[in-house]
Amino acid sequence: MTATQDATRRYVRTTMAGELLDAETEHRLALAWRDRRDEAALHRLISAYSRLAVSMAGRFRRYGLPYEDLVQQGNLGLMRAAEKFDPHNGARFSTYARWWIKASMQDYVMRNLSVVRTATNAAQKKLFFNMRRVQAELDRAQIAGRTLAELAPQIAQRLDVPVAEVELMLGRMAGPDLSLNTPQSEAQDGREWVELIEDDGPAAEDVVLGRMEFDRRRAALTDALMALPLRERRIVVERHLADAPRTLTDLGAQLGISKERVRQLEERALRRMRDRVANTAPALTA
């Protein structure tokens, strides 16, 4: 037995031997945590119901994931339940927490069972965790020997999901994950599957042409800016190119002129820049 397994067994024994809370104590602890953020009350509440995470983790072991990770995930769901629980809603905390623990473990299973996201909506999640059970029920109902694909309509009816969702889930569960770096054939120089994926980004030619056009526009604008008189160039830079643009009032005070005069100089400078760009690079104004 490894050290990890031994530690897990000790944790399970300690958890299952923890105290059992009656409804009144549970309600009082939940109120103390919600209203006063009493961490001692939270710790006692979580410790008492960690057995739910331990118990439910056993039901999810069939998916082949580490038991201790399932328990930890269940405890995260338990913490989430304590954070959201309303002591006045009439339900026991244990009932409320059970739902959060199960949901947390289900999400963990779907995230880690495959590198491909197996279930992406509520209908597929229902299928993922109930398909085998429904198949077993159908087998017991004298429909044994038929494949899952043949049972798709009955499964869809039992779980109240579209047949198309059942067929989609069957396809996802039909085989193991395959690396995109796997060769397409056994030939030594065989191409990898990743090479068949179409790049949805811009073509290299478009990227180069876009960069050239950007550089051309920047050069034309720089030339137009440098051709301005010093004061107008300063106004354009401070008003349009600075990280923190200056106001007309600030610039007027700094330059010793009115803010209206600053506005007039700004308009004239921008007009001169547009005219120079239009004369030197007509395509930029198209």
Please give a structural write-up.
- With 286 residues, the protein is mostly helical.
- The chain has three domains: 3-112, Up-down Bundle (Four Helix Bundle (Hemerythrin (Met), subunit A)), CATH 1.20.120.1810; 122-172; 204-285, Arc Repressor Mutant, subunit A (Orthogonal Bundle).
- The protein is built from twelve helices and no strands.
- The chain has helices spanning 3-16, 23-36, 39-59, 67-84, 93-112, 122-143, 152-159, 163-172, 204-226, 230-241, 248-255, 259-280.
- The longest helix has 23 residues, at 204-226.
- The radius of gyration is 34 Å and the shape is elongated.
Short note summarizing the structure:
By secondary structure, the protein is mainly α. Helix content is 67%, strand content 0%.
List the helices and strands and how they pair.
Blueprint: H1 3-16, H2 23-36, H3 39-59, H4 67-84, H5 93-112, H6 122-143, H7 152-159, H8 163-172, H9 204-226, H10 230-241, H11 248-255, H12 259-280
